[in-house]
């Protein structure tokens, strides 16, 4: 037969939880972590990440970045060369297309290495302040984008097909690169100038 056992009185008194809020006399976990320095954030994290510290080395060097950009522009040059040849219904000479793209690669590499901004000191103007360098960079590519775009519009409307096939791919690549290098406001301004040149000169895209 089952025996009835007396239940012992619990050692912990049962009561409702205190919902009045934390006791100000007792330290919280945040206060304990702050006392041990676990919440101290380095000052470098609060700075603008777009401006790397002077002692911080860039993740990729100027030459490596220039090679990456040059390869991309060379592929764009090859694509535009093929499209121009297709437009004029010219027989595709792949050896010549690849040769012209290979010749354009070192030119792109030199230009990008010299003119593309990088955290390391610039090649042409290493002693100028960064703010002045940015203004000069934007001004140079603003003028370059307008010149390249206007010239591309001019040759495609006035020159014969052979001259267009030779000059349109490199000039188009330079135009695209110049626009990419610009800030949004400068890029939109350069495109508006090219559109104005197109309208005032009675040119067309066809």
From TrEMBL:
<protein>
    <recommendedName>
        <fullName>DUF7719 domain-containing protein</fullName>
    </recommendedName>
</protein>
<feature type="domain" description="DUF7719">
    <location>
        <begin position="137"/>
        <end position="204"/>
    </location>
</feature>
<dbReference type="InterPro" id="IPR056136">
    <property type="entry name" value="DUF7719"/>
</dbReference>
<keyword id="KW-0472">Membrane</keyword>
<dbReference type="Pfam" id="PF24841">
    <property type="entry name" value="DUF7719"/>
</dbReference>
<keyword id="KW-0812">Transmembrane</keyword>
<feature type="transmembrane region" description="Helical">
    <location>
        <begin position="135"/>
        <end position="153"/>
    </location>
</feature>
<feature type="compositionally biased region" description="Basic and acidic residues">
    <location>
        <begin position="1"/>
        <end position="21"/>
    </location>
</feature>
<feature type="transmembrane region" description="Helical">
    <location>
        <begin position="174"/>
        <end position="198"/>
    </location>
</feature>
<feature type="region of interest" description="Disordered">
    <location>
        <begin position="1"/>
        <end position="26"/>
    </location>
</feature>
<keyword id="KW-1133">Transmembrane helix</keyword>
């Amino acid at each position: 037969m089952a025996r009835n056992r007396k239940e012992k009185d619990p050692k912990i008194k049962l009561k409702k939880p205190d919902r009045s809020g934390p006791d100000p006399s007792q330290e919280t976990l945040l206060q304990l972590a702050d006392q041990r320095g676990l919440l101290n954030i380095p000052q470098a994290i609060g700075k603008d990440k777009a401006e790397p510290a002077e002692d911080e080395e860039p993740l990729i060097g100027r030459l490596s970045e220039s090679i990456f950009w040059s390869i991309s522009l060379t592929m764009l040059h090859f694509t535009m060369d093929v499209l121009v040849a297709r437009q004029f219904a010219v027989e595709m000479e792949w050896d010549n297309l690849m040769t012209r793209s290979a010749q354009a690669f070192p030119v792109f590499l030199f230009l990008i290495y010299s003119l593309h901004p990088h955290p390391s000191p610039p090649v042409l103007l290493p002693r100028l302040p960064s703010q002045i360098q940015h203004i000069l960079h934007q001004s140079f590519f603003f003028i370059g984008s307008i010149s390249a775009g206007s010239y591309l519009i001019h040759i495609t409307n006035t020159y014969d097909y052979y001259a267009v096939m030779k000059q349109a791919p490199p000039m188009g690549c330079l135009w695209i690169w110049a626009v990419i290098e610009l800030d949004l406001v400068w890029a939109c301004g350069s495109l508006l100038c090219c559109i104005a040149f197109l309208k005032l000169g009675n040119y067309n895209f066809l």
